[in-house]
Amino acid sequence: MGRPLPDVLRVDWPANTAEPPAATLAALDRATEVLRTGGRVAIPTETVYGLAADALDEFAVDGIFRAKGRPATNPLIVHVADVAMAKSLAASWPEAAGRLAAALWPGPLTVVVPRGPDVPDIVTAGGPTVALRCPAHRLTRLLIARSGIPLAAPSANRSERVSPTTAHHVLEGLGDRVDLILDGGPCTQGIESTVVDCTVTPPRILRPGPLPRRRLEEALGGPVLGPDAPAGVADAPARSPGARARHYAPRTRLELRGDAVARVDELLRQGRRVGWLTTQVAEPAVRTLAANRDLVIVPMPDEPGAFAAALYAALHALDRRELDRIVVDEPPSGEEWHAIRDRLTRAAT
Q: Could you say which DSSP state residue 116 is in?
């Protein structure tokens, strides 16, 4: 007989109130108890839900890897309440990290800095750097501050699968592999944070995310290099999560297509059941295809921020339909779409 499913506790904090409701504070206190005893708590952030454990407890962090089936070469991001906590986990605090944090924290930005002696090897995949983020979700920051615990927290899903943007996605994907879920509602950004290596000059983007390069360069007052190509050696430790060739993938095979209309038509003629994420719903050819009962069309926004916020929820929904294929329109070129192209390219690998 397996473990019971975790409790899902709703955590609210109305924008016009200085303090969270008593029920929310009680939920944070319960989460603190779980974390202090080495357990795993799913937490909301503005990007995706994270599977959190005490970053300074190697046995608790090992539980994250086991729950996700995550390779040991894939490092974790440590979530902090503020810059002071971040500096306590770093061997040094590069000027670039200071400028970026001052301008863009709290927010969807992760800085990679030299690792301090208190951070266990398992968190960094044995590497010399640690990835740190101060999330914009104020309830998660309050949890970290009240507990005094920096939280190692990758996305709360099985390794390589679509990241969760709701508490239901977490429960559906991890089940009894998590001890408690804090339900803070849907994530507003919808894709994982931008990761910047601040140990090199100029700093380099290791993973594109909601913050594009121009925002980083404005904060720094200088250049930022683009991301490297994905690592070619699967077993080598990485400096950033999300660098593996296959990631963010639904169970259903996904195709990223510049000729989506023709490809969907072809698949339907082959008798396949198809889900299609498209921004082209007003096109006559799309309306014609929409009459086919084997096609599920999900209209997507044509603005990159809104597209990103809706992407993972749409993939989760289509994955439940037991389709033969998911087709996604190839996003436009340009920096604002870079992170979305990155996620979809890896999902289609």
A: P
* CA distance linking residue 87 with residue 115, whole number of Å: 10
> What whole-number distance in Å separates Cα of residue 133 and Cα of residue 58?
19
* Closest to 55 measured CA to CA, from 127, 153, 174: 153
pLDDT band, very low/low/confident/very high, at 3 (cuts 50, 70, 90): confident
Is the pTM for the entire model greater than 0.90? Answer: yes
**Distance, CA of 333 to CA of 349 (rounded, Å):** 19
Secondary structure element (H or E) that encloses residue 113, with its range: strand 109-114
Domain that includes residue 16, residue range: 7-220
Domain co-membership, 101 together with 199: yes
Give the pLDDT band of residue 249 (cuts 50, 70, 90): confident
Query: How many domains does the chain contain in total?
Result: 2
Taking residue 77's Cβ as centre, other Cβ atoms within 10 Å add up to: 29
| Residues whose CB is less than 8 angstroms from the CB of residue 185 and which lie 6 or more positions away in sequence, other chains included | 44, 166
Cβ-proximal residues to 81 (8 Å cutoff; 6+ apart), any chain = 134, 141, 142, 144, 145
Choose the final residue of a domain: 168, 199, 220.
Answer: 220
Residue 247: inside a domain, yes or no? no
DSSP code for 274 = E
**Strand order in 274-278's β-sheet?**
254-257, 325-329, 274-278, 295-299
Instruction: Compute CA 295 distance to the chain's CA centroid, rounded to the nearest angstrom.
Output: 28
